[in-house]
Design goal:
Elements: H1 7-15, H2 23-30, H3 40-44, H4 56-71, E1 76-83, H5 89-98, E2 102-110, H6 114-117, H7 119-137, E3 150-153, E4 158-165, E5 171-177
Parallel strand pairs: 1-2
Antiparallel strand pairs: 1-5, 3-4, 4-5
Length: about 190
Amino acid sequence: MIVNKNIFVEKILPGGIVREFSEEEMNVYRAPYTEPSARKPLWRWPNKIPIEGEPSDIAELVGNYNEKLVEWDVPKLLLHAEPGALLQRPAVEWCEVNLKNLTSINLGKRIHFLQEDYPHAIGEAPAEWYQALWSVFGTGRGFCCSSMATKVNLPSVTFNLWPIRSRSAHASTWIAIEDVPMRSMSV
C-alpha cells in the first residue's frame, strides 16, 4: 500500500496534522513520489523503527543514545505535542524525569508532524533556548555524537537532529548543538 497507493503521502501525512493541507501543499509532498519505484524509501524507513527490540541493530543504536542521554550533562531540547503519535505523555514524563538539563516544550494539541502545524514555534524555540543557554553558560559549544544525525546550518549555529527512543519505546526528535563557536546571537 505504501509503494503502490502512495498511502504514506496520501493518508498518513495528512492524518498526522491538525490543519488541512491545501492541494498545492499536497502536490509538493507528492512530487518526489509520483512513480511507485520512488516510494521505496517511504516503505523502508518505517521498517527500521525499532519496536520491541527489532530490528536489533537499530534498537541497539537507540539504546546507546538513551544511555548517553541519561548520562550527559549537555543541555537538551524536547519539542512535543499532545496527544502526540509516537511520543505520548508517559514517554515525555520519562524524559523529563531522567534526562539532565532538559528543556521540555509542549507545543500544544497536535499529532505527529509538528513542523506542519507549528513551523514558527519550531524555528523560534531552538533560537530562544540557545539564547537562554548562552546567557547562563556564556558559551556556544556543545556536542553530538550521532552518525544518524541530520545537520541543520543556520548563520550562527549548527544543530544536529537525531532520532532517539525512550525506555517506553516512543520515538522523538532531539536537537543538540554541535561544537560550533558563536560570534553573535542572530539566527
